């Protein structure tokens, strides 16, 4: 698997005092959380073999990241 084709996770940007705690959007993250991988049906070792970035420190679970992972797995099964 080519590393360039691996999916990128999206995480919320930090809330800044300057912006009065208003959510300012999403940015690319370092890796998917372990719980996101589990909910998508992927183990940690499978993710590493597929070239999917994993961030063991992250605890948050975002539905859009689970959807990204499931779409990626569906593309792998097709072709």
Write the element-wise H/E pattern from the N-terminal end onward: EEHHH
Strand segment count: 2
Radius of gyration: 14 Å
Low-confidence stretches: none
Please report the number of helical segments: 3
Helical content class: 25-40%
Q: Determine the structural class based on helices, strands and strand pairing.
A: mainly alpha
Quaternary status of these chains?
Answer: single chain
Strand content bin: 5-15%
Mean pLDDT across every amino acid position: 87
Number of domains: 1
The first-to-last residue Cα distance is 12 Å
Global geometry: elongated
The main sheet orders its strands as 1-2
Sheet of most strands: 2 strands, antiparallel
Describe the structure.
The structure is a single chain. This protein has one domain. It contains three helices and two strands. The chain has helices spanning 34-40, 44-50, 63-78; strands spanning 10-12, 26-28. A two-stranded antiparallel ribbon has the order 1-2. The longest helix is centred in the last third of the chain and has 16 residues, at 63-78. The mean pLDDT is 87.
Keywords:
79 residues; mainly alpha; two-stranded antiparallel sheet; 38% helix; 8% strand; elongated
Write the layout of secondary structure elements.
Elements: E1 10-12, E2 26-28, H1 34-40, H2 44-50, H3 63-78
Antiparallel strand pairs: 1-2
């Amino acid at each position: 698997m080519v590393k360039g084709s691996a999916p990128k996770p999206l995480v919320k940007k930090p809330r800044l005092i300057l912006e009065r705690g208003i959510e300012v959007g999403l940015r690319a993250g370092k890796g998917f959380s372990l719980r996101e991988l589990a909910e998508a049906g992927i183990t940690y070792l499978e993710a590493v073999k597929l070239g999917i970035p994993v961030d063991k420190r992250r605890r948050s679970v975002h539905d859009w990241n689970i959807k990204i992972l499931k779409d990626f797995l569906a593309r792998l099964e097709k072709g």
